[in-house]
Amino acid sequence: xxxxxxxxxxxxxxxxxxxxxxxxxxxxxxxxxxxxxxxxxxxxxxxxxxxxxxxxxxxxxxxxxxxxxxxxxxxxxxxxxxxxxxxxxxxxxxxxxxxx
Length: 100
Prior knowledge:
Layout: H1 2-15, H2 20-23, H3 27-44, E1 49-58, E2 61-68, H4 69-75, H5 77-93
Antiparallel strand pairs: 1-2
């Protein structure tokens, strides 16, 4: 959720440079980003593409973007890498493989 929210914050800042500084410190806008990120992540679990739409995100400015499942997986690649080592270690200790 945080990864999606961070990327969308950067996209908003790129799209609206005049509002870039204010949104980063606005708690309400950041909560809206996080809430929509959670909805978008849930949509991506079943679809290859998901809209990211937040109305009146900051100073009555709407924000729309799309994100693909591949983009999301690329964002989380560092997290996946950290998780695979403990899983592989546990499987080795249990004398099991991923196919089991």
